Structure formats: structure tokens, C-alpha cells
Amino acid sequence: MRWINLRPSNGTRLALGMLPFAAIVLAYTIGSVARLAENPNDKLLPGLVSLADAINRMAFIPDGRTGDIVLWTDTIASLMRLFSGIGIATALALTIGMLIGMLPYARSLLSPVVAAISMVPPLALLPILFIMLGLGEVSKIALIVIGVMPVMIRDIALKAIELPREMIVKAETLGGNSLQIALRVVLPQILPRLITCLRLQIGPAWLFLIAAEAISSDSGLGYRIFLVRRYLAMDVIFPYVVWITLIAVLMDWLLERVRIAVFPWSSPEVRT
């Protein structure tokens, strides 16, 4: 039996998937114990007890000054900005991407400028956004939109261009106009790729959000991380980083479940 043909069972797949995470936790624990044994006041790798205390303080005990539970307040603030930016970027990317992919004139007009904009480092535009749009929510959301939208447009446009020409010709033969072809033929074929593209942009979207919150904000996960770093509060920073990762993983998992449920024919297992 060739290795390429061996497939793990569900239990083996779960065990293999958890093994790297267990190795990371074990390595952290060993490193923390070693550093604390040498210096009990070491803050770089706090012990598991310190991490648990910080999680309890941030996630379950109201803040003495504001009365808010800090972790949940920060999470809600960040998710509102993230979902707003991703939602706007997705709607614009779908519309512009379909235009570029379907209409040669639109492709000639928009494709070069979209390609150029996609090469601009979004974080380099952050000072410009703060100057033009102010330090409020609009500039943070705009950074997310600018950061993820051009890449999504190019991906959607390429998918539309790759659609078999025979599908368009058949729709035209049946009397479909451009709008009907866009809605009845192209859109259903593009939506699975849009979901996959959105999954790939979750990480960059979080990056742009945290960068904006770190520079100018009074709430949010990124704001809190950069606020406590001046105190070397690694017992807060590590749980916040893990929490952001868990949220991103959950978003990725939910999007994949939606794609499989709504477009089961788009799964690789089905196609093969």
C-alpha cells in the first residue's frame, strides 16, 4: 500500500490534529517552569496559574472603574468593526469582480487600477485614513475594506473569467440577457469561491483591525493588547492572542460549513 493512498480514520485524524497543539502547550509549560525556576518574577512566560488568574479577571470580573467585563466589551467592539469592514468589502468585491469577469469593457477599465491598488501596502495608508477620515470608527473600517477588497475582487474576477464559455452561450441561446446571465449563471458559480476567498481574508482583516485599534482606539482586542504591553503583562496578552485566534478559527469553520451546506457540489470530494 502506497502512503499516498492511506487515509486516517476519524479518530486518528482528530488525534493527529490535536497533537501539534498539545506539543505547543507542553513546550510552553516546560519553558515557563524553567524561566520561573530561575527567576520567580519573570514576566515573559507566565505560569499557567497566572494565565488562569488573568483570564478570570478579564473575562468574568467587572472592571472596578467602568463596571464592564473587559474581555467581552473589547470583543464586541472589535467584532462590530470587523464585520462591518468585511461586509462592505464582500459586497463591493462581488459586484466589481463580476463586472470585471463578465464585461470586457469593464475589465479594460477597472482591472489595471484594481491590480495596482492591490499592490499598495494597506498599513501604509493608515496615517492617511486617520487624517482624512478622523480617528473614529470610519477609518478603522475603511482600512479593513481597503486591505481585503482588492484581493477579493481579483479572485472573483478570475473565477468569472474561468467559467466555461459554453455556459454563457447556452444561456444566450435560451434568450437570457446580460443581467439574467449574471444572476442565473455566473453568480451561483461564483458564490462558493466568494466564501472561500472570504475565509482566506479573515487573517488579514484581523491584522488591519488590530493595527488600527493599536494606534487609535479606546476599546477593542488590539487596543487592549497594546495597552498592557507597556506593563509587560504577558498573562493578558497571551490569552487575548489565543482568543483572537479562536474567534478567527470559528469564523473560518462556520464559513466552510455554510459553503458545504449551501453549495455541496463545490466540495472537492464531490467533484472527484
Task: Describe this structure in a few short sentences.
The protein is mainly alpha-helical. It has twelve helices and no strands.
Explain what you see.
77% of the residues lie in helices and 0% in strands. It has 12 helices and no strands. The radius of gyration is 23 Å and the shape is globular. α2 crosses α11 (234-262) and α3 (70-102) packs across α10. By secondary structure, it is mostly helical. It folds into 2 domains: 11-39; 59-271, MetI-like (MetI-like fold, Orthogonal Bundle), CATH 1.10.3720.
List the helices and strands and how they pair.
Elements (H helix, E strand, L loop, with lengths): L9 H29 L9 H12 L10 H33 L1 H15 L7 H8 L3 H26 L2 H9 L4 H23 L1 H14 L5 H8 L5 H29 L5 H4 L1
Structural class determined from secondary elements: mainly alpha
Principal-axes shape call: globular
Task: Kindly report the CATH topology of the largest domain.
Answer: MetI-like fold
Helix content: over 70%
Unreliable stretches? none
Q: How would you sum up the major sheet?
A: none
Average pLDDT metric: 90
Beta percentage is under 5%
**The CATH fourth-level homologous superfamily of the largest domain:** MetI-like
According to CATH, what is the class of the largest domain? Mainly Alpha
